[in-house]
């Protein structure tokens, strides 16, 4: 190669000889005449580190082959740049890959390529590259055209189905989980209205009896004390609660208070005992005792219902937070995430799918640090692995989620006690469209998608070990300061 330094400091376009072109794996099988043609029309271009090579959506005018340096490919997804992969392998290529299709498709760059380090490229004009491929390999062009069109249609259909299945699982799980606390809050709200009405009626009864002023003040203070006691009461066992209700029921009957047995359960739930009721009787006198006790009972019931509503709303808020954590809707695609938190968010979303006979075991290493990752996509991995584990076990078994350190990597493991994966099937489980499920129950894309998310996007690894009664899917992810700069993949 030869070239001159420009006034702006950039290296002027250079040429590669046919012999140099043959050292690139893409061109190694071309004949001398074909190499001569490429050498004549191609040129060498330099790019500084962290500079743009080509941008997604721009007209695809050139085909780029990496000679030296490292590059990263990304795509724009809903306004965010998502890394597809990175490479420093000499000969990897990108750009006008589909120029051989001519005007059959819009010729635009499908990705954005940036140079991570100072890099050099062999660059061919798209028109020349497309014409050469069509002329030299007409049969291959027809095959590639069919493959391109078929894959595009297949990816569209299967991609939509996968998204619908994922959305269905998310919405079904979330709806099921939200229904219980929402129904509890609705019931408590309805009952709260009745208790407030009862409080007003009992207070009116107390007022009608014209109590001495200080007694009314004492009664209000006792009501406040009862509410505070309710907030801090210790939960009794069923046997102890029954004994306490019997004792309070007897006290209420002795003091001529009607429906004492109905009041006793609420008073016990609020932590009231006979000694405390003696202080009420002393404070208000016998004339106002019955309405006073009922008024205080309504107050305790109101506080219990308020706490129930607060708990239900907190559960709803927690579920919404788990859904946001699962989908990562309000976060950048790549951020620092805690793997156990993501696993727990996924479990919450899938809780409706977990049969009663499945025991969930968690074994998280608390010393592991957060890592830089694509949280929403890792949640898709956990979803696929957990759903597969549940399918394998059926109605009974143990699902184990575990995180631990494996040397300089974080290991997240999903284990099940199902029948295991047969040895003859194991090598193919990460292949696209391969599934062991009956027709209509699986697309064969879950593990393929998981593999690409873990390996291509996170520069990690995913492995499986299986024998009857014990299967482990192990996801290895780089810990901080151990993320590789490149992987040997073709852009």
SSE diagram, text form:
Elements: H1 18-22, H2 32-41, E1 43-47, E2 51-54, E3 62-68, E4 71-77, E5 80-87, E6 93-95, E7 112-115, E8 119-125, H3 126-136, H4 138-208, H5 213-232, H6 238-254, H7 260-269, H8 274-284, H9 289-327, E9 335-337, H10 339-350, E10 358-364, E11 371-373, H11 375-393, E12 397-406, E13 409-416, H12 446-457, E14 461-467, E15 470-478
Parallel strand pairs: 10-12
Antiparallel strand pairs: 1-8, 2-7, 3-6, 3-8, 4-5, 4-7, 9-11, 12-13, 13-15, 14-15
Question: What's this entry about, in short?
Answer:
The chain is of the alpha+beta class.
Structure, explained:
The chain is an alpha+beta fold and 491 residues long. It folds into three domains: 18-136, Sandwich (Jelly Rolls), CATH 2.60.120; 175-318, no CATH class; 333-478, Histidine kinase-like ATPase, C-terminal domain (Heat Shock Protein 90, 2-Layer Sandwich), CATH 3.30.565.10. 48% of the residues lie in helices and 19% in strands. It is built from twelve helices and 15 strands. The strands form four sheets. The chain has a five-stranded mixed beta sheet. The protein has a four-stranded antiparallel beta sheet with strand order 1-8-3-6.
User: Helical element count?
Assistant: 12
Largest sheet: 5 strands, mixed
Instruction: Note the quaternary state here.
Output: single chain
Element order, helices and strands?
HHEEEEEEEEHHHHHHHEHEEHEEHEE
Low confidence ranges: 1-12, 482-491
In what order do the strands lie side by side in the largest sheet?
10-12-13-15-14
Shape: elongated
Annotation, overall tally of beta strands: 15
- CATH structural fold name of the largest domain: Heat Shock Protein 90
Give the proportion of residues in helices. 40-55%
The residue-averaged pLDDT reads: 79
CATH architecture heading of the largest domain: 2-Layer Sandwich
**CATH evolutionary superfamily of the largest domain:** Histidine kinase-like ATPase, C-terminal domain
CATH class of the largest domain: Alpha Beta
User: How much is the radius of gyration in Å?
Assistant: 35 Å
- What gap, in angstroms, lies between the N and C termini? 25 Å
Beta fraction = 15-25%
Structural class comes to alpha+beta
Number of domains: 3
């Amino acid at each position: 190669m030869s070239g001159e330094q420009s006034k702006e400091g950039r290296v002027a376009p250079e040429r590669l000889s046919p012999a140099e072109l043959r050292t690139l794996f893409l061109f190694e099988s071309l004949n001398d005449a074909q190499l001569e043609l490429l050498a004549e029309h191609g040129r060498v271009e330099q790019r500084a580190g962290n500079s743009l090579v080509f941008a997604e959506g721009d007209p695809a005018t050139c085909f780029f082959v990496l000679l030296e340096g490292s590059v990263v490919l990304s795509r724009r997804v809903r306004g965010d740049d998502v890394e597809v992969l990175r490479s420093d392998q000499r000969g990897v290529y990108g750009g006008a890959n589909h120029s051989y299709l001519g005007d059959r498709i819009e010729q635009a760059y499908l990705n954005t390529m940036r140079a991570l380090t100072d890099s050099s490229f062999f660059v061919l004009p798209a028109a020349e590259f497309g014409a050469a491929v069509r002329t030299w390999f007409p049969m291959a062009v027809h095959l590639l055209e069919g493959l391109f069109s078929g894959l595009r249609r297949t990816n569209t259909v299967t991609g939509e189905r996968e998204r619908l299945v994922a959305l269905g699982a998310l919405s079904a799980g979330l709806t099921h989980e939200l229904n219980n606390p929402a129904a509890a809050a609705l019931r408590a709200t309805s009952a709260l209205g009745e208790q407030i009405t009862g409080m007003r009626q009992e207070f009116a009864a107390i007022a009608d009896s014209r109590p001495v002023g200080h007694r009314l003040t004492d009664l209000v203070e006792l009501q406040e004390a009862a509410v505070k006691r309710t907030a801090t009461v210790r939960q009794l066992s069923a046997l102890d609660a029954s004994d306490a209700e019997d004792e309070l029921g007897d006290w209420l009957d002795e003091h001529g208070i009607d429906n004492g047995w109905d009041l006793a359960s609420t008073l016990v739930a609020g932590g009231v005992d006979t000694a405390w009721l003696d202080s009420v009787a002393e404070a208000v006198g016998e004339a106002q005792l019955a309405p006073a006790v009922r008024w205080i009972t309504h107050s305790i019931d109101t506080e219990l219902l308020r706490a129930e509503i607060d708990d239900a709303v907190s559960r709803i808020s927690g579920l919404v937070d788990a859904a946001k954590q699962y989908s990562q809707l309000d976060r950048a695609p790549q951020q620092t995430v805690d793997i156990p938190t993501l696993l727990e968010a996924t479990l919450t979303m899938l809780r409706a799918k977990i049969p009663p006979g499945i025991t969930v075991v968690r074994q998280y290493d608390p010393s592991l640090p957060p890592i830089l990752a694509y949280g929403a996509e890792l949640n898709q991995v956990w979803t696929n692995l957990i759903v597969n584990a549940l399918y394998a076990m059926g109605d009974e078994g143990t699902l184990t989620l575990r995180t631990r350190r494996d040397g300089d990597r974080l290991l997240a493991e999903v284990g099940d006690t199902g029948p295991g994966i047969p040895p003859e099937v194991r090598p193919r489980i990460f292949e696209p469209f391969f599934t062991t499920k009956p027709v209509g129950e699986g697309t064969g894309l879950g593990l393929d998608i998981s593999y690409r998310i873990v390996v291509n996007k996170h520069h990690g690894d995913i492995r499986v070990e299986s024998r009857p009664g014990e299967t482990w899917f192990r996801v290895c992810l780089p810990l901080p300061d151990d993320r590789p700069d490149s992987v040997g993949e073709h852009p």
